[in-house]
Amino acid sequence: MRLPTFRVPVVLALVAALVLSACGNSDTPSAARTAPPGTTTSAVVDPSIQAILDKALPPGGSGTVIAARDGKVVHCAGRGLADRARRIAASCDTVYDIMSMTKSFTAVAIMRLQMTGKLRVSEPIGKYVGPLPADKRIITIHQLLTHTSGLPESLGDDYDPISRRQMIAGAAKSKLVARPGAKFAYSNLGYSLLAAIIEKAAGTDYEHFLAKEILAPAGMTHTGYALPRWNADQVAVEYDEEGLPQGRPLDHRWAADGPYWNLRGNGGLLSTARDMCRFSRALAGYTLLDRDAKAHMFKGYAPIGLPGYDGYSIGYGWVILPGGALATHSGGNGWSYGVSVRGVHSDLTVFWISNQAVRAGKWDLQDIAQPLTLKLVKRLRTR
Fold it and tell me: Are 152 and 298 part of one and the same domain?
């Protein structure tokens, strides 16, 4: 089973926006073993950042790291192999499942719809998903965005073949874990409902809306579910804790137009480090959201409420650190793991991702995420 992941320790890292040109391909060559056709093999390597990675990351691991400051990519390179059987090296152009980091895109989509007057986050969700039982009629779009709806974490496995209609019906019948608005309770189901709301308000399907309203304006050409013309060799194979291949995300059970509705909107988008950089750059300016929308997105609303994390709160698709200057989201599915973090008011970026999250009895990337990312952030700040 693909495990939905929300691990708060990774929020002690920072990602900010990059200039679009800095997310391009004008880097220095790397020593990729094999590169799939149609991709670049360039990398930018900062020796001091590489030294941090060499010390922190376990031997045998694989993935990609990008770090940038003040509109310039300081480091962007792969590590290890995206496909071990075929000896295809991980690179800045490797496509990964970004997992729960998908939620940040869903939140931006909602805010774009609010900017054009097609919905309001204060509205009850029943306006868009249909009649609901009494205990769920007061749930608002805002509460879905902030994981305060009281809905359960999920309805089942990510790859269960359920339709939008079945997902909505399952949400309506589900048992609330808390009274709506009462507290933070992480819910993948809530973000699938947001994807359904996007479709209703926009009059088009979720991925087409993302492609037109977010991905194209941000210059993101290698992000999506089914719309990009994926070169399968460019997509990372995921590995379990024993190092056994679990296939590429596209190998798993999906509908013709993307994942089924236990995953759609809350996870499963595919992207590259370069495209995640472009997304961050677009959020830094006003390409995607105006000043008011960004203020709402990066405001801390509800406390996370976990021991040792006083002052941490949830925004729209992001976790907001104390002081409100930093925002982040992680993603994990039991095989892969990654972190996307951004500075709300500063131009500093770190995004890293791996296609093997755990090696049984040896290492778990979630355990080293906090110190690793903090070191990368500190290094960027002092360059």
Answer: yes
Q: List Cα–Cα distances, 307 to 8, 232, 302, in angstroms.
A: 11, 42, 15
Domain assignment of residue 87, yes or no: yes
How far apart CA 360 and CA 358 sit, in angstroms, is 6
- The CA distance from 101 to 282, in Å, is 16
- 354 belongs to a structural domain: no
| 222-279: pLDDT as tens digits | 999 999 999 999 999 999 999 999 999 999 999 999 999 999 999 999 999 999 989 9
Range of the domain at 195: 98-228+253-267+284-325
58 and 151 housed in the same domain = no
The contacts of residue 288 (CB under 8 Å, 6+ apart) are 108, 112, 213, 214, 217, 218, 282
Same domain, 59 and 124: no
User: What's the pTM value of the predicted model, to 2 decimals?
Assistant: 0.91
Reported as a single tens digit per residue, the pLDDT across 263-294 is: 999 999 999 999 998 998 889 889 999 999 99
